[in-house]
Amino acid sequence: MSKAVIAPAGRQVILDTETTGLDPRQGHRIIEIACLEMISRRVSREPKNTFYKRINPEREIDEGATQIHGISLEDLEHEPKFVDIVDGFLEYIHGAEVIIHNAPFDVGFINAELKRLNRPPINEICTITDTLAMARDIFPGKKNSLDALCERFEIDNSARTFHGALLDTELLAEVYMAMTRGQDSLAIGLEAASGKASGADGRIILAARPAKLKVIRADAEELRQHGEHIGRLDKVSQGKAVWKLV
User: CA 239, CA 232: separation in Å to the nearest integer?
Assistant: First the structure.
């Protein structure tokens, strides 16, 4: 493996896989892997900043899996094997925070592939954030699938007729941004209501706040105009303006 560059501060990678089945312990393998780069909450979709590969799994694909992602073994006959893409993949995620929905599933498959090649597990070269665990903390008792979260945050997932690794990373990036909105500002968004933010491991932690905020007070003319506006509202509402100064 070539020496990986040091990841930029704040570099995150949104990752998703598609597989031949549900259990790597039964020999199921990865057939598609997609990664999007996000730095300082800005997602890059330029090909040079993404990692996307279809992979020949060297085994049959379960019919049930094909019904979910629409990929057959014939589609992958001329694609590279995992051993052919592993170096580029590990270099891409090296040192990043890797964001995955239902991380144990994808991590289990990736680590099974790495173990076949006598490589260390993914957890040793990057950190993992599970957005499903985050969603369960924020929305306990509710559906927290990727589709459910897209609906909750009004994210358009109409193109998701099949599960696809590349499309799912794009949707997950939007979901993650919506779930963590406010962490880079004055806690505006979901965490603002609770005074909490989500940590890298999916747990809820206290959100950081600036030590000192600049206060800009209204001048006399602004106060006069405000008073006149509130007076008009009070008149129209027949004395029910709740903003009226006492």
Answer: 10
